[in-house]
TrEMBL record:
Coiled coil: none annotated. Its EC number is 3.1.1.47. The lineage of its organism: Eukaryota, Metazoa, Chordata, Craniata, Vertebrata. InterPro entries: AB_hydrolase_fold, PAF_acetylhydro_eukaryote. SUPFAM superfamilies: alpha/beta-Hydrolases. The keyword Lipid metabolism applies. Keywords: Hydrolase, Lipid degradation, Lipid metabolism. The active site is at S242 (nucleophile), D265 (charge relay system), H320 (charge relay system). One of its GO terms (biological process) is lipid catabolic process. GO terms for molecular function: 1-alkyl-2-acetylglycerophosphocholine esterase activity. This is 1-alkyl-2-acetylglycerophosphocholine esterase. Gene3D superfamilies: alpha/beta hydrolase (3.40.50.1820). It comes from Asarcornis scutulata. Transmembrane segments: none annotated.
Length: 396
């Protein structure tokens, strides 16, 4: 929904134009039902935009949110993928316009004494807040509040904010590397903005906890004060994929309240070398088999040599997109266009990633759960997982 919260009449229904459901996101496997709402705070670019996943009370016939919330995101994804928006956007819209996330839209928050631990999630380059719904849903079903950010540094395929003057939407398009600019400086500037947004997301929850009114621009009917006692701010982690993975690492440097980071196939390139010695907390690096470079792995190893609790594991048979919702695509056409899909079954891949993350979060957030039954994954022990870097890089 946009600034005026008007209905999305332009979304295709299942079966329209032959666009049968090509995506089935898995529901969470944990004991909690999962609720979901979009949260936009502030009416300038400096505000915050995130999708909140949280444990909720079960509700019959609950509405399920669209996976791609607006047509503009299909256009942004087509452009990011180097395709013409004229045909790429309608194609994506036919493929995904009817797909929904298996969560309860604005479902009633399920209170818990002491509150739930919090995970701030940072998306990858060319992504946006909904493309990691499967991992966010799984974590929420296990008893986490997850805030999936939509970054405004120009790295999202598209995003927007609602202006104060007229309540109009102002869209921020994906920003390509400016001609003549060195990529490191451009990406380094972005990663610092992204990490600052992660810190500001934590500040948002601190404000709610402190009883400050925090109006939700998009959904005023969802009162954030229901989270006042619902989040345990002593148990906060940061997580992300690719550009979001290195964002999570940098967030540890900027904010001492983040107790650990989970970095999914982190793109380590944008972080300046002087900051590696400054990373104070443990990181779990979960790499795909087919993405990493020797330089990136060397940076991860540099962190693990400084912190005995940092772990690096690799999921065999997975590619970079295996850690996004795209892993669950069945359409051959879309796989060909976006060159996604590894050999590992996506449900098995999600299990490995989420269970390793849960075991790591239990260890470093001092949770009283049974996630330690998956601790072997942190040592790279198990089916389709190996310790350290991908085998193809090990002889470099």
């Amino acid at each position: 929904s946009g600034c005026g919260a008007r209905p999305l009449t332009h979304c295709l229904q299942p079966g329209a134009m032959g666009g049968e459901q090509s995506l089935a996101l898995p529901p969470g496997k944990g004991p909690h039902g999962v609720g979901c709402v979009d949260v936009m705070v502030g009416r300038t670019r400096q505000g915050l935009f995130l999708r909140l996943f949280y444990p909720c009370e079960p509700r019959a016939g609950a509405e399920r949110p669209r996976w791609i919330p607006r047509y503009e995101y299909s256009r942004g994804m087509a452009q990011f993928g180097g395709r013409s928006p004229r045909w790429g956007a309608p194609l994506l819209h036919v493929a995904f316009g009817s797909c929904r996330v298996p969560v309860s839209w604005k479902g009633p928050f399920k209170p818990r004494s002491g509150g739930y631990p919090l995970v701030i999630f940072s998306h990858g380059l060319g992504a946006f807040r909904t493309l990691y719904s499967s991992i966010c849903t799984e974590l929420a079903s296990r008893g986490f509040v997850v805030a999936a950010l939509e970054h405004r540094d120009g790295s999202a395929s598209a995003t927007y904010f609602c202006t104060a003057e007229s309540g109009q939407e102002e869209w921020i398009q994906h920003q390509r590397l400016p001609p003549g600019q060195k990529e490191f400086y451009f990406r380094n500037m972005q990663v610092h903005q992204r990490a600052n947004e992660c810190v500001r997301a934590l500040r948002l929850f601190q404000a709610v906890r402190g009883g400050q009114p925090v109006p939700n621009v998009l959904h005023p009917d969802f009162d954030l004060s229901v989270l006042k006692d619902g989040v345990d701010l002593a148990k906060v982690a940061v997580m992300g994929h690719s550009f979001g993975g290195v964002t999570a690492v940098l967030a540890l440097v900027k904010e001492p309240s983040f107790r650990c980071a989970v970095a999914l196939d982190a793109w380590m390139f944008p972080l300046e070398n002087t900051l590696y010695p400054e990373v104070p907390r443990p990181v779990l690096f979960i790499n795909a088999e087919k993405f990493q470079t020797p330089e990136s792995i060397a940076k991860m190893k540099r962190l693990s040599s400084r912190n005995s609790q940092t772990r690096i594991i690799t999921v065999l048979g997975s590619v970079h997109h295996s850690q996004t919702d795209f892993a669950f695509l069945t359409g051959k056409l879309v796989r060909r266009i976006f060159n996604v899909g590894g050999t590992l079954d996506p449900h098995k891949g999600l299990d490995i990633i989420s269970r390793a993350a849960l075991a790591f979060l239990q260890r470093h957030l001092d949770l009283k759960e049974d996630f330690d039954r998956w601790e072997h994954l942190l040592d790279g022990v198990g089916d389709s997982v190996v310790p350290a870097a991908p085998p193809c890089l090990s002889n470099l």
